[in-house]
Design a protein that fits this description.
This protein is α+β, with helices and mostly antiparallel strands.
Amino acid sequence: MASSPGDLVTFARGELLRQVEGASKRIWLASPYLSAPIASHLINSAAMSSAVQRRLVTALVPGSVRVSALDPKALLILEEGGFEITSIRNLHAKLSIVDSQWGLVGSGNLTNAGLGSTSRGNAELGVILDQAQIEAAAAIFTGWWEEAKPVSRELIEEFDKIERVGASPGEVKAYGSVVEPSQTDDLEQILAEDKATAYSRGYWIKSAYHAPENPDWWHRRWISDALPPKYAVGDLIVIYLGKKNDGPQLCPAVVRAVSNPRDDRQWVVSHRDEEAADQWRHVTETTFVADVPIAEGVPLSLIGKNGRSIQRGNCSITREEFETLAQAMRS
């Protein structure tokens, strides 16, 4: 569910990517820190837009690279995806403007932690701008852009050579609780649909492996199956992580199909590897709907199913079963 002007946002990833995906003219971003996974998500979303003007203002500072707060590989991903990049070395603002209709100012950088990765998210806070504030923020961004220095690919590659440093042995550990982010706002709108809308689409459980190195992989905007699935555009698909790789045997996420399934081995090769392509070659492009921290996923037993119910990799469920799972994710 898209946020309205004045709304506070604690988990900005889904909202930002949706807006980028629907951009028609411009995508303006300002952030001193960036990570490669978020850069990839932004490029995937921008590829679905018609925005020609793509700009990033960052702070290309050796110290930020050295401590891995700014990953030059993220800048290379954005540069390859058509973003112009400039640098203001004392930039600390975090601003996103899409076209002339949407803007967000907040504490979160363009990193997994800053945008609320379900695996390791910061407790962030931002606000959606109203029209007057979007115009004022755009004027400020324009001023930054005019003052900033252009960043070339060659310069980014030079910064990528900087040696990274880790924590020192015996360093005092961080203290305090961790606030785990969830993003389930869209489920509220889906659960409130009229019957005609609710029953106009299909609902599915999709079995997948837990990936400790990329725990919230469903943000990559595609899924794949071993056998040809029967998803249709608009269908809602609940992700179930089985027990392989110490998986939780829980459902932590919901995605929406935005393409019909296709046999596309080369896609899987280019986005993952040959081994994955040999096993799961049937690709369905998706958009993110909702997720919760993996440990807070919901069990299939709520709808009388288990991992064996998904022997072929996916199974159809009823709207009522989907509602049961969605309600549990929101609680």
